[in-house]
């Protein structure tokens, strides 16, 4: 199976910063990002995701700060070699053109390990953009971004000295995208990314075409996603593992500070139990995205006790290769537009 | 008082004809590996900043992508975040326009780069006065030239509010605290001015240098005023000595009207540098470079922009086109056109015809004669070092932003041959004594 890990802040539990053993402000340090990604790579995760939002992760007593996700992913691009890097970016609060260039550039900087976790937007997030919108439907933004990624053919740069041509103009295309509320002319400023199309992840509830559909860890949700045409289906799973204290006691401590109220499936217990659960899940899911409660505790536990005994696919040179996804053909090949 | 110091940046445009892509000695300049090699060379040369230009539409010639120039580049902030993870001192500056960005989004990305680099980020504020570029964005070709600087001013003021929304001691010192951030220590930013509309609770504190260093590039009165109000550095197009002096006088006068001291702004004009072991060798290189940059194919393309017609059937070594140019406006798809050049196209063509006739010039010959010269310093390292010393001592500029024509050769030559001469003259650092871009530039603390 495939394993992804979410590396936001101090961990998925809102009170994780209290149990991390580091100073509260350390969640904003670049070294914290670098160390977490390095450990996830060493442990064998296929990809790391970086949650994000233009507004604070917590409005209560917990973490109010966060570095922007594409920046975090790019920051570790040259210090990692195998792991896929998947920042969350909202379709509503970033221009589709910038979004396409950002993920394409991350793919170039990582030599083909970039992905995009598609996010919608809440009213508070939309307010950050104000009248610079209108935002456009998520599915339309995804379609525009995908077309922009194809706007340069792979062999567009020819550097033909005798004819004085740096590029072949027949291989760089206008996309002329027309959505309900916005248009994009193209081409992208960035040449086609090494993967052709960087990997797209999206929750099933967003209803956009994705390479990896993220669903709640229930077989009926997996079946529904597959029926809707999903390629790879990953279960979302929160994890609290036994450490210096039993997992349930750790969770109780954390919940006393802030209750962890999410709708996701949660596993609380031993590493062996998690290994068994993952084996069960592999019958219905291609992979699982883990949300470790406290990164500084649960990530090392995963790396030491869980990943080594799992039957994980080996990683390839690009994220698509790791996931067994072929590089897609370019829709504009042969087009004269 | 210590001697005034020269500050150097490299301007990576990623487009245009100044870069001689055909030279076999070049690295693959758009890749992360090539860019990182340049960044590390700049750190070896103790440069202040590595500076990325912006162009959000691939240049075209009459509706087709322009084939003769380099094109294709990464998103600047993404690439600079990658560089932040692999460098330690160099300032990382992104050109980002205020017309086709959302203020809260851009402010947060810049702030992220500033924190990832521990205080080395800069923002070159431009307005991208070009509706043709707008076709890639949600708001299309909105805002005419004057209103763009109104939006820019409101945008920068919103960004500054976002960057100062966290109290310095907002985050709890230890995890036993009741709250991660002290209640009341993070201010929501709300702006509803006529051209900026946002409500946001910012997610980031100030960096080691406070906030990103603000550069401004844009030469109209509106651009100069924006610089005088808000910029820490101006990236000017006034490189020749007399122009530089006049520009410095003008910008310092504007600074005073906003109550700022002359010392609070650095002036770094763009420049290209052509070095030779002798003056003759440098001149020869400059001539070689001009011919490499203005190839016969580019000469045809240059005239096509003015004629508005397909001229590919004309011999670049033959006489000027015998057909009449299109009466329409100058084609904007070759990049930003200054206000002064937007009108009077037919008059200009008429004077070219007269010149070509009088001097018996071919298309290529005419373009070599009339195409604006790069603002270049040509000579031996000693000669250029002396020239720059004069600029610095008379406070005409604070340094230069160098546009390379070969990579890495332009940079390695400057680092290995010119920098030591500048150091000998006492106008250039011999080691980094600071870690932030603001401190490299000797800007007063915020
Ligand atoms: C030295 C210099 C460098 C510039 N670099 C860029 C750039 O990289 N991208 C861009 O869109 N505009 C760039 N500009 C354009 C200006 O920022 C501005 O948008 C344009 O010149 C119109 O404003 P103006 O009339 O005030 O000059 C540059 C201008 C100058 C003088």
From TrEMBL, chain A:
<dbReference type="InterPro" id="IPR051260">
    <property type="entry name" value="Diverse_substr_monoxygenases"/>
</dbReference>
<protein>
    <submittedName>
        <fullName>Luciferase-like monooxygenase</fullName>
    </submittedName>
</protein>
<dbReference type="GO" id="GO:0016705">
    <property type="term" value="F:oxidoreductase activity, acting on paired donors, with incorporation or reduction of molecular oxygen"/>
</dbReference>
<keyword id="KW-0285">Flavoprotein</keyword>
<dbReference type="InterPro" id="IPR036661">
    <property type="entry name" value="Luciferase-like_sf"/>
</dbReference>
<keyword id="KW-0288">FMN</keyword>
<keyword id="KW-0560">Oxidoreductase</keyword>
<feature type="domain" description="Luciferase-like">
    <location>
        <begin position="30"/>
        <end position="204"/>
    </location>
</feature>
<keyword id="KW-0503">Monooxygenase</keyword>
<dbReference type="GO" id="GO:0004497">
    <property type="term" value="F:monooxygenase activity"/>
</dbReference>
<dbReference type="InterPro" id="IPR011251">
    <property type="entry name" value="Luciferase-like_dom"/>
</dbReference>
<dbReference type="Pfam" id="PF00296">
    <property type="entry name" value="Bac_luciferase"/>
</dbReference>
UniProtKB/TrEMBL annotation, chain B:
<dbReference type="InterPro" id="IPR051260">
    <property type="entry name" value="Diverse_substr_monoxygenases"/>
</dbReference>
<feature type="binding site">
    <location>
        <position position="220"/>
    </location>
    <ligand>
        <name>FMN</name>
    </ligand>
</feature>
<keyword id="KW-0503">Monooxygenase</keyword>
<protein>
    <submittedName>
        <fullName>FMN-dependent oxidoreductase, nitrilotriacetate monooxygenase family</fullName>
    </submittedName>
</protein>
<keyword id="KW-0288">FMN</keyword>
<dbReference type="Pfam" id="PF00296">
    <property type="entry name" value="Bac_luciferase"/>
</dbReference>
<feature type="binding site">
    <location>
        <position position="95"/>
    </location>
    <ligand>
        <name>FMN</name>
    </ligand>
</feature>
<dbReference type="InterPro" id="IPR011251">
    <property type="entry name" value="Luciferase-like_dom"/>
</dbReference>
<keyword id="KW-0560">Oxidoreductase</keyword>
<feature type="binding site">
    <location>
        <position position="149"/>
    </location>
    <ligand>
        <name>FMN</name>
    </ligand>
</feature>
<feature type="binding site">
    <location>
        <position position="145"/>
    </location>
    <ligand>
        <name>FMN</name>
    </ligand>
</feature>
<keyword id="KW-0285">Flavoprotein</keyword>
<comment type="similarity">
    <text>Belongs to the NtaA/SnaA/DszA monooxygenase family.</text>
</comment>
<dbReference type="InterPro" id="IPR036661">
    <property type="entry name" value="Luciferase-like_sf"/>
</dbReference>
<feature type="domain" description="Luciferase-like">
    <location>
        <begin position="30"/>
        <end position="294"/>
    </location>
</feature>
<dbReference type="GO" id="GO:0004497">
    <property type="term" value="F:monooxygenase activity"/>
</dbReference>
<dbReference type="InterPro" id="IPR016215">
    <property type="entry name" value="NTA_MOA"/>
</dbReference>
<dbReference type="GO" id="GO:0016705">
    <property type="term" value="F:oxidoreductase activity, acting on paired donors, with incorporation or reduction of molecular oxygen"/>
</dbReference>
């Amino acid at each position: 199976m495939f394993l992804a890990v979410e590396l936001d802040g101090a961990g998925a539990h809102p009170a994780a910063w209290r149990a991390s053993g580091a100073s509260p402000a350390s969640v904003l340090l670049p070294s914290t990002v670098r160390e977490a990604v390095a450990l996830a790579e060493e442990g064998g995760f296929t990809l790391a995701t970086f949650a994000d939002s233009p507004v604070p992760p917590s409005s209560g007593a917990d973490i109010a700060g966060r570095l922007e996700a594409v920046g975090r992913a790019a920051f570790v691009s040259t210090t990692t070699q195998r792991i896929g890097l998947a920042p969350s970016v909202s379709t509503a609060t970033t221009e589709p053109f910038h979004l396409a260039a950002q993920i394409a550039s991350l793919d170039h900087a990582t030599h083909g390990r970039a992905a995009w976790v598609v996010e919608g937007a809440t009213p508070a997030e939309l307010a950050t953009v104000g009248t610079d919108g209108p935002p456009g439907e998520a599915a339309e933004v995804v379609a525009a971004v995908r077309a922009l990624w194809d706007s340069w053919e792979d062999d567009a740069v020819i550097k033909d000295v005798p004819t004085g041509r740096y590029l072949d103009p027949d291989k760089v295309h206008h996309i002329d995208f027309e959505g309900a509320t916005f248009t994009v002319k193209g081409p992208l400023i960035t040449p086609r990314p090494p993967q052709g199309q960087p990997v797209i992840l999206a929750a099933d509830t967003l209803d956009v075409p994705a390479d990896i559909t993220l669903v709640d860890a229930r077989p009926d949700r997996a079946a529904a996603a597959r029926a809707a045409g999903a390629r790879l289906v990953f279960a979302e799973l929160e994890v609290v593992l036994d450490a210096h204290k039993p997992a349930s006691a750790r969770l109780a401590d954390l919940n006393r500070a802030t209750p962890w109220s999410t709708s996701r499936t949660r596993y609380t217990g031993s590493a062996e139990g998690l290994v068994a659960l993952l084996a069960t899940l592999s019958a219905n899911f291609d992979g699982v995205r883990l949300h470790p409660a406290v990164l500084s505790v649960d990530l090392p536990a995963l790396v030491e006790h869980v990943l080594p005994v799992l039957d994980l696919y080996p990683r390839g040179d690009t994220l698509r290769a790791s996931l067994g996804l072929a590089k897609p053909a370019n829709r504009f090949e042969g087009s004269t537009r | 008082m210590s001697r005034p110091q020269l500050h150097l940046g490299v301007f990576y445009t990623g487009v245009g004809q100044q870069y001689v892509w055909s030279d076999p000695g070049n690295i693959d300049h758009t890749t992360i590996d090539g860019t990182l090699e340049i960044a590390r060379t700049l750190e070896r040369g103790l440069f202040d900043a590595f500076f990325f230009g912006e162009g959000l539409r691939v240049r075209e010639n009459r509706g087709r992508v322009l084939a003769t120039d380099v094109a294709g580049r990464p998103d600047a902030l993404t690439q600079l975040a990658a560089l932040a993870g692999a460098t330690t001192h160099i300032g990382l500056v992104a050109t980002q326009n205020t017309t086709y960005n959302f203020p809260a989004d851009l402010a947060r990305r810049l702030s992220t780069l500033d924190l990832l680099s521990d205080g080395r980020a800069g923002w070159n504020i431009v307005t991208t006065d070009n509706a043709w570029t707008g076709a890639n964005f949600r708001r299309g070709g909105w805002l005419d030239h004057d209103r763009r600087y109104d939006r820019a001013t409101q945008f920068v003021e919103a960004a500054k509010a976002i960057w100062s929304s966290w109290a310095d001691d907002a985050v709890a010192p230890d995890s036993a605290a009741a709250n991660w951030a002290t209640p009341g220590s993070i201010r929501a930013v709300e702006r509803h001015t006529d051209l900026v509309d946002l409500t946001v609770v910012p997610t980031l504190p100030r960096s080691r240098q406070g906030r990103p260093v603000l550069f401004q590039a844009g030469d109209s009165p509106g651009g100069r005023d924006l610089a005088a109000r808000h910029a820490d550095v101006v990236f000017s197009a006034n490189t020749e000595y007399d122009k530089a002096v006049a520009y410095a006088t003008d910008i310092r006068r504007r600074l005073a009207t906003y109550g700022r001291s002359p010392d609070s702004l650095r002036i770094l004009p763009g420049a290209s540098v052509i070095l030779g072991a002798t003056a003759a060798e440098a001149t020869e290189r400059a001539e070689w470079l001009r011919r490499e940059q203005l190839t016969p194919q580019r000469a045809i393309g240059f005239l096509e922009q003015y004629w508005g017609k397909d001229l590919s059937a004309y011999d670049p070594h033959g006489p000027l086109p015998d057909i009449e140019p299109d009466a329409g406006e100058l084609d904007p798809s070759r990049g930003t056109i200054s206000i002064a050049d937007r009108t009077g196209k037919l008059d200009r063509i008429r004077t070219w015809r007269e010149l070509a006739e009088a001097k018996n010039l071919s298309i290529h010959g005419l373009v070599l004669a009339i195409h604006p010269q790069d603002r270049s310093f040509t000579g031996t390292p000693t000669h250029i070092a002396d020239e720059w010393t004069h600029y610095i001592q008379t406070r005409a500029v604070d340094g230069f932003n160098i546009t390379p024509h070969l990579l890495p050769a332009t940079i390695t030559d400057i680092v290995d041959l010119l920098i030591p001469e500048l150091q000998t003259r006492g106008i250039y650092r011999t080691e980094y004594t600071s870690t932030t871009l603001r401190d490299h530039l000797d800007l007063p603390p915020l």
